Amino acid sequence: MFPQPHFIDSNGIRLAVYEQGEGPAVILLHGFPELAFSWRHQLAALAEAGYRAIAPDQRGYGKSSVQPRVSDYTVEKLIADTHGLLDALELSSAVFVGHDWGALLLWQMAMLAPERIDKLIILNIPHYPRSTEDPVAIWRERFGDEFYIVNFQDSDEADRTFAADTAHFFDVTMRRNQMSREVFDLMAPENKVVSLLKPLARKKHRGEPILTTEERDYYAAAFAASGFTGAINWYRNWTHNWKRLEGVEQTIDIPTLFIGADDDVIIAPEHIEGMKLLVTDLDIHMLANCGHWSQQEKPAEVNRLILDWLMQRG
User: Fold this and answer.
1) pLDDT for res 276
2) Among 15, 97, 180, 257, which residue has the fewest nearby CB atoms (within 10 Å)?
3) Which CATH class is domain 6-313?
4) Residues β-bridged to residue 175
């Protein structure tokens, strides 16, 4: 059973925190459009293995505070939330696990404030070198205005459309076997532009739902209450965060496990290969027949990889 939250004050906001187990702390940071609930399989497995598993609803999500301004979601404030969480739990440091935006945040924290990270476990999103040009400008030129991150910058269309029917949004979004790497690689470039709006209007959808009806309803109720604007505001700070990393050392020396997915088609093999030059102590495992929602698509395999690596690394 998924635990009930307790609430802490962190960096001037309220975070809902879900915990299971006792022992060395492992903190799990979710991405978009997820919640601490995304780690339900991992919390139980870590607790059973003798760890204190901790997952917050991040700023702008679930039962945590939803701040009103785009500037409330800069990388500096997100890292401060994580430090505030550690302080409130009386932890000097911890093992951190991140998926999607949780992974991006942890890569940024590993560059800007590495001292409170004991080990890193990253799902799906590799460590990218900082580009010389604003990434949003690159994506706008390469993919056009329909690309979801570009669309997020330009209007609140996504905020409104996603919130109009949250159950439908999660039925469409959280699916497995949507597309294999082989099929994606054969597509024309113009058909590879990722839109999160177009799929919502289709009558037929690729793949199968990941979530049970009860799990879907949990997500749907949470986002019906919070809306999507806080979560999308993380993306609206992409340019700010890129500027913040100017001149920052990109190499990461923290022991790191990267768990990728063969069919997470937005992540190209060369992205993962390039990471090897930037992370000095790196183990890589790829999940076959798995897309973007790794810890929910393949929970038993993800749990085994995490626990085996933690045991090996002490």
Assistant:
1) 96
2) 180
3) alpha beta
4) 209
pTM above 0.85, yes or no: yes
pLDDT digits (tens, 9 = 90+) for 104-157: 999 999 999 999 999 999 999 999 999 999 999 999 999 999 999 999 999 999
Q: In whole angstroms, what is the distance from residue 14 CA to residue 9 CA?
A: 5
Q: Which among 57, 100, 171, 263 is annotated as catalytic?
A: 100
> Do the Cβ atoms of 197 and 232 come closer than 8 Å?
no
The pLDDT tens digits for 12-21 are: 999 999 999 9
Of 30, 99, 127, 292, the catalytic one is 292
Are 256 and 122 spatial neighbours (Cβ–Cβ below 8 Å)?
yes
Q: What value does the mean pLDDT take over residues 243-259?
A: 98
292 given a catalytic annotation: yes
* Domain edges within the chain: 6-313
Mean of all residue pLDDT scores within the chain? 94
Q: State yes or no: is 100 an active-site residue.
A: yes
Quote the distance between the C-alpha of residue 280 and its chain's center: 22
